[in-house]
Amino acid sequence: MSLRHRTSPDEASNECGCRRRFLFDCGLGFGSLALASLLATDATGTTADQERESDAHERSPLHHAPRAKSVIWVFLSGGYSHVETFDPKPALNTYAGMTFDKTPFENPVDSPLHKKRFRSVAAEEINVRDVYPIIYPMQVGFRRHGESGIEMTDWWPHLAKQIDRLCFVRNCWTTDNDHAAENQFHTGRHRLDETQPSIGSWADYGLGSLNDNLPKYVVLGGPTRADTRASIDAYYLGPRHTGVPLALDPNAPLPFGVRPAGRSESAQRQEFDLIERLGRIAQRQTPEDAELEARLRAYELAFRMQSAVPEGIDLASETAETRALYGLDRPETETAGNRLLAARRLVERGVRFVQVYPSGYGAWDSHQKLKENHEKLCTSVDRPIAGLIEDLSRRGLLDETLVVFCTEFGRTPGLEQRSGGVDGRDHHPNGFTIWLAGGGTKKGHVHGETDELGYHALGDGHYVTDLHATVLHLLGLDNRRLVLPDRRRLEIDHGRVIDEILA
Description:
Blueprint: H1 9-29, H2 36-39, H3 48-59, E1 70-76, H4 91-94, H5 112-117, E2 142-145, E3 150-153, E4 166-173, H6 181-187, H7 199-206, E5 217-220, E6 244-246, H8 265-285, H9 290-312, H10 320-325, H11 334-348, E7 353-356, H12 370-394, E8 401-407, E9 410-411, E10 427-428, E11 432-437, E12 445-447, E13 462-463, H13 464-474, H14 491-494
Parallel strand pairs: 1-7, 1-8, 4-12, 4-13, 5-6, 5-7
Antiparallel strand pairs: 2-3, 4-11, 8-11, 9-10
Helix pairs in contact: 1-8, 8-9, 11-12
């Protein structure tokens, strides 16, 4: 007679649960490397099959020859005004104070593009957010710059010197007219739709690693708050592809991410090896437990990251000239400069996708005092972003690093009149501008346009997933082939590559 104890299904379940709990507790004790930012998303319902599919995909070759190795995705939360930044509209000054129907142009509110691209959560009959009829003049001057002669407003004097390296897309549009558009810009889905993985997670999922000691997908300065977590989340791709937020403190870049004093690397390595062995024993009994698999992967990455991450974000090792180039010597540019310089260091060390928030949540949301707010905000970002482009170019990294500079929507050509407003613009998803640099994009180029008043993206325009498809294409990935067998994606999720901006 066998002496092996035969457990009931309930006993087996309890046993596995206890072992999982034991592993978790051991992990906290063995080196305090819980790494909440890596592990907090374990409970996503991802199946082991999906994780194995992800493994196979990572080992597979790229779909085509890449133009870029890495992406620095710079996102300005709140919605900067396209007409006061990168798409100046002198007609706003000519017809200031008039209503749309008094100009010689087609009334943009009557355009079929309005209903085609507008999707408000609030009832349309009570939503007037993007249809303010009184034209509000530009709050800043503009001029042409560089050999390309591209127009830019006067709030970007440093970036203007880089204009012949930039590629503008002036006919972007999206559908959410509230700040859930921040998530929509990264996932491609309106908040009323099923959530999808973020662009950074798709890049992480599709690409192999360039440095096994660092995450492939890092986030600096964000997510800006809890309800924007979707902007970095991987959802059904599995927790290992979620963005990893890092703090710019070499002594504590991650929660619990520093080896305790008095514990040697070899001792900690033995502790983690024990966790690995115990985990694999549990995994043989519960092969579908994606949470356990993700946790084991996270602990192993955590061990390797302890030295690589602090070194990667140690800005003190940079020269004084480089620090000044990013504005680290000025209080008004220090925050953005720190994050963008750290982004350069991380891609230099093999991180594939760095998502940077140079400003706080909603900072660019200028419903009132637009001139005061935008002048201050542009100053805070202008020198650092220009410094990034210059620094990448000097180091020979710009050709292989794609820089994307974007926001969730533009701002209305009309004066926002809610609450007696007299000096601001409301949210405007119907047409706005983003720009790219390096990584296989054209230099000193403008693609697309909005109408004379900056209201509608003309032609087909580019929904946000067109940008996603383009970024992935430049990384060597075909967005239409990035699929899981049991997850059907809609046509809008795939977007189309913006071929017109490719070098």
